[in-house]
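Inputs:
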Amino acid sequence: MSDVLNTRRAKKQALGPYGRIGKSLGELDDRLGVARGGRTFMDKIFPDHWSFMLGEIALYSFLILMVTGVFLTLYFIPSSAIVTYHGSYAPLVGQKMTEAFESTVNLSFAVRGGLLMRQMHHWACDIFVGAIVIHMARVFFTGAFRKPRELNWIIGSTLLILAIVNGFLGYSLPDDLVSGTGIRIAYSIILSIPLVGTYLAFWVFGGNFPGTSIIPRFMILHCLIVPLIIIGLVGAHLFLLVRQKHTQFPGKGRTEKNVVGSPMFPVFMAKTTGFLFIVGGITALLGAFAQVNPIWQFGPYDAARISYAVQPDWYMGFLDGALRIWPSWSFHSWGYTIPFEVLVPAVILPGLIFNLVFVWPMLERKFTKDNEIHNLLDRPSNRPTRTAAGVTMLSFLGMLFIASSTDVLAKFFNISLNTVLLSLRYLTVIVPILAFPITYRICHELQAVKGGGRRKTPNVVTRSVEGEYTATPSPRYVDDVPSHLEATEVPTYIHEEPDESGDSGVRVVDR
Amino acid sequence: MTDEHRTPVSLSGLAANDPRLQPAARNPELVERVIGVCFIVGTLCLAGFGACYWIDAQPWKLGATLGGGLLFLGIGIVAWGKYLMPRGPFVEERHTLANSEADRNALAAAIVERGGGVMQRRKLLGGLLGGGMGIFGIVALFPLLRSLGPLPKETLQHTDWRSGSYVVDQTGRRVQVGDLAVGSIETVFPEGTENSDRGQAVDQTVLIRVSNEAFTTKKGRETWAPHGYVAYSKVCTHLGCPVGLYEQELQLLVCPCHQSMFNVTNGAVPQFGPAPRPLPQLPLYVDSSGYLRSQSDYHEAVGPGFWERS
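Outputs:
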């Protein structure tokens, strides 16, 4: 008996102090040399601020998109061949439709769990793009895009474009009445490009609209090419994040030279895994209880039919809104036409917006003459010009988004379509113009608030036996910012080089 | 909880009994119990997912059980990470990414001097190689682009309406002069295209009967609308949506996509909205047997604008 025990102990000792796991890690290190880097990775510090999870929402909804998307590819048939429907959804029986539409209806009704997967896929896409936009706003307003992170800003912005494009490609695939109209509009937008538009449109669609090539081509783009690029760029995004380490808000013990927070293992890993489950859970609940894109109600696409309130998914709304409110200015002379009524709102405008987004870090560097490395984040109110510019852009996009539902607004409020359209034309110009000075002003007011940006601690009010009330401040929160550190938020070199125009994007405020 | 405890420390080099590695929750037993309940409920939900899948696979039941299961497990894991794990905060030093001037110069020298030297000594070879690569880049575009589809040529300028085409509805039935009451509308095609993709997309035409007599929508179109039958292209001149809504009282055709409105009695001139041009009008005539037929194709290209549109 003791012999057995002894051999067990001897075996255990031979494995070393960390047992089997330690032994296998040792074997791995012999071959790949991962021990030191692995330990550094386990110790990697993630800031605890809630706003850092917005990017995680995007990442996890992308994971859900891939899982549910693979499921959908097993049942979806990307074909424009015409078939007659004989499935389980009675109102469509006997109708002629493309195989793409038929297989989408079938995977919704005839495949176990198919409808849930489809709805989760659609919801995850809406969440994916939304999370990217909010994450981007966080990065913008806190100045996290500044040197050395300009490249990651550009990668992230590219990801937003790719997400929007892939969303459009995806909801075009079922070939229903609404999405088919969307494809028709996309075709007309390509057509509007001067000189090469007709050639591009014919090459993309394999001929005149609609043709039979577009659904298979969108399938390859949607399921292979764009996702591959997204995966590659997400990898690059995360690699740069690890290489450059996180930014952090200023606070006690936090400097440009360190990161304060929780370690990768086990704290962050637990939180982020749990968060993945939560995002998945919410997506599943939405897929179960919130119907989205019920294509069997729209019916199959037919170029000569149309339904009321034709609107794209929310992230295409700003484009649709721009197309609705832009005036009908068309150039026509010398036997040629430049359709400005389409070209400006659908090609030039998004081009300008995204180019402005891409070059913003460089622009800001140029105007503030701030070429330093920044790892501490800004309070948005400490950078009134940047914050005002961001709010202006968001309010402009917001107005365009609202403009994409002129007909629904007119019907809902029972006012004439003309009134809605004209007022939205004016508002889309006026609201952003007003947003700038108002935001600028609010930022300045916020700067003057004593203790702004610090977490408030409650006072504990106690009543004594005599009936006297006394207020005692409760203990500070863990991450409270001590007052002596606040002055470091605005770097001092701005003092040395004040901008002549007074519109430098950075202001130093006397407290 | 004093501030002193909260001074950030490095993670490595902490003793196993360091207070910062202790649970952060003030009442760990309660937190443990809550997390335990979360895990149990989550597991039950997921088991329920399996059962629902087996029984009737109702989508809402599947989603509710799957979503509930993931949500409860997730909340439990997050709570575990937040309350029962090392409390921190910990600090990690940030090292400058930039290398020393000497390192930078060494890299630059390797590229500029070594590589540049190679190129400078063989300028002709370099030029030849560059030319070859350039040609490759250009010709590689040919199969990538040109194979994708045909050249547009004149396709966009014409429809399938011909001189004498019979006007048929979506079922292929020829339209006769008595078929439509005043104020009614019908989507029509040139005979033979009513079931084709191209017919649906390009040739679609709205036929509206605005009166009982021959109707003039515009000067020079006196013979185009016999017996009050007016025909316009159904493809919106803005972005190509079917102009499918007919407002009979105001005699307007409305495009539901971007709300362009066209005046039916006045040559479909856009009255409102983003459309830049009137809908092209199709000249009609009534033959001796009472069938509606087209005099010719549209006199201009239908649909949205493009560069070659004259």
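Remarks. Chain A touches chain B through 114 residues (CB under 8 Å). The two ends of chain A are 79 Å apart (CA to CA).
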